[in-house]
Amino acid sequence: MIVKRAASIPLAVHDPYFSVWSNHDHLNGQDPVHWSGIRQQMRGCVTADGIRYAFMGDPASAETIPQKTVSVTPTKTTYRFENEKLSLEVSFVSPLLLQNPTLVSRPCTYIDITVEKKDAAEVWADIWVSDDLVCQKPKRLVGGSHKRPSCSGQPAYTYAFMGRAQQQPLGSSGDNVTIDWGYVYLAGGSPNAQLCYDENNRRIGCRLDFSEKNTDGCILAYDDLLSINYFGQWCKAYWTHAYKDILDAIGAAFADKEEVLAKAVRLDEEMMQKAEQIGGEEYAFLCAMSYRHAVAAHKLILDEEKNLLFLSKENDSNGCIGTVDVSYPSVPLFLLYDTEYVKGMLRPIFKFADCDVWEYDFAPHDVGRYPYAWGQVYGLNPDGTGHAYSREQGDIFPPFYQYPKGSETFSLRGQMPVEECGNMLLMTAAVCLADKDASFARPYMDTLKKWTRYLLEYGADPGEQLCTDDFAGHLSHNVNLSAKAIMGIEAYARLAGLCGDAQEAQTYHEQAQRMAKDWEARANAGDHYALVFGDADSWSLKYNLVWDKLFGSKLFSEEVYQKELAYYAKKANAYGIPLDSRKEYTKSDWILWCCAMAADKQQACSFLMPVAKYLEETDSRFPFSDWYDTVTGQYCHFKGRSVQGGIFMPMLMSQKERFC
Fold first, then answer.
1. Which of the listed residues 244, 468, 506, 651 has the most CB atoms within 10 Å of its CB?
2. Mean pLDDT, to the nearest integer, of 397-407?
């Protein structure tokens, strides 16, 4: 779809490190950047009869070719340029097709160029990729260009590559940082494509000749060598199990290009059509801008038992890996396509919860700081015994998963007890209900029951603690958090039923019913339901209630939804509904969860349209920030996070029969 404007446009988007965006209204207005805002210099120019025109990156001294349009679909971004000599179309396709984990993991973006000559005889295009993609500080580089002959059904192609001379895979950990290990590649499949490594200018380049053709392209790829340390296991990316090396992966990308692009088009068309039916062009816009964004905030690997692991990075927050309350809002997108991705989010948390160092009877928050899944780093106890650690960016936390009981590694006040128990129960139930099979949950039922008992004891009226919206601080008597506890208990009841224990299912379902009735009475504030129990003047988005609708459990009366949603409409600002009565800021994912509970399309559109307006008009040029001010449209924090998978909750709600 044609995009008038957006905060940031995806170009080559694959994982938390290989992530290139345009933060300018024009592709040739400034250099592309990483989601964090760090420059990822890529330059492109087209030469027509000896005159150079810049179409990508800072134009420097070159003349620019006027940009006419930009269109974005879930998997593709296309720019169109035109002047008196030629028309130029440049597309970037990162085919993160969730139906195919190998393609989700394969780090290859197709860059295709189509030229229509008007008043030009000779035309060629140059694309340059700088060392920004492999290191941020000047380092010695190695690189080269070679031709790879055809082999094993793959076509011949020419490639150039570049990387640091001294490689330290997984050499650092932190947030708002880029990778400084691995190698970036450009590859051209046509016989006349010219690839080179420019040692003096620290870049690799590709020249495409349009003398005898109108369309040509190249592949931009990244080989990170190692991806994650998972509880002591040094893991390569999922794609390495399908291909012997990056050259094989690039060759496969050339060989299956036509098929893959056709599948990407089908996904784009189907998703855009569904989105428009649900919420019009504005919802289609939000889905198009969220799809690659949400998928690429993860890294896909396998554990030693060949189970899929889908590990998020908490971008522009604290860099945590596998954060439970980041996975929770993201799951609607992944439940739409394959529950294995959600299972891949859950497995690491269950694994860490079974470690000796985790002595609590509630669920953990995370499993480390990216790219080290070495045990939770949120809520550490600075006075714990027998260990020392650094919080500096780049430094690596100790392997907390190895610590013994009694090490006092964590601070109770720094945890999210009700939040994470509810999240884990709800996500686990969602995948099993969608599968109509409890096989995934069976090995963890004792742990899940322990977390459910915690919710029964503390969830009806939570004491002072953090919830996922931890930027708002600790809060007592949180009504929305209590709703999550109730739905978490119902989730366990559903799991027990799937496991064949009808009595257990009935017992916990009845507990959830009683708690829901009590919740309604105590939270009732007349024309809405309060932010905290006992304060009728407060209010908040009750996004956690969405599971009651999705599961069809009917724990809460229809009156709750009618009053709440009508009240939200009264509180809306120019760029959306605030999160609660304390501030004017909001979370876009939670607005869309509330949108999924709307009575009709008109009400749904009234919720989502201001979010689309924010993304289109904000001056904060970052990939779709989920935390922003609803009055000014300014970013508060958070960039490029996986939580924007929550934008797809209205689409998931259209499939609620899968979960009932």
1. 468
2. 94
